[in-house]
Amino acid sequence: VQLVESGGGLVQPGGSLRLSCAASGFTLDDYAIKWFRQAPGKEREGVACIKNSDRSIWYADSVKGRFTISRDNAKNTVYLQMNSLKPEDTAVYYCARQAHCGSMLIFGSWGQGTQVTVSS
After folding, report:
1. Is 67 in contact with 79 (CB distance < 8 Å)?
2. Distance CA 60, CA 116 (A)
């Protein structure tokens, strides 16, 4: 069972990036998948979550209207489209499995994450 994040990089303020979370060893439909981020010196925080079985989608207030979470079941991959990026979005981004989007727990361990840096 594995989740691998990719797609990070350096982008100017106002720019866009699309992150990917590729799943293997399990079926996405059985779980909620949440994107988290951790900035230097700050706690890890949830950013967006999706669960197909109950059609739930959740966004943190700080990213509503700018980020869009989606999934491609055929590719067993969850995406995070990030638009209108701000310097405060700079962080390492992780994805994780949860029972539901409101859970405080994740299944398994954290992956290596993908670095997003928003800077001019």
Report:
1. no
2. 17
Question: Are 14 and 82 spatial neighbours (Cβ–Cβ below 8 Å)?
Answer: no
DSSP per-residue string spanning 34-101: EEEEE-TTS--EEEEEEETTTTEEEE-TTTTTTEEEEEETTTTEEEEEE-S--GGG-EEEEEEEESST
What tens digit of pLDDT does each residue of 58-115 get? Answer: 999 999 999 999 999 899 999 999 999 999 999 999 999 999 999 989 998 899 999 9
Coil vs helix vs strand at 5: strand
Q: How deeply is 44 buried, as exposed, middle or buried, from its count of CB atoms within 10 A (0-12, 13-18, 19+)?
A: middle
Residue 19: φ, ψ to 5° = -95, 150
Name the average pLDDT for the chain.
Answer: 94
In the chain, the amino acid numbered 105 is L
Amino acid letter at 35? Answer: W
Output the six-digit token pair for 31.
């779980």
**Sign of torsion, CA 27 29 31 33?**
positive
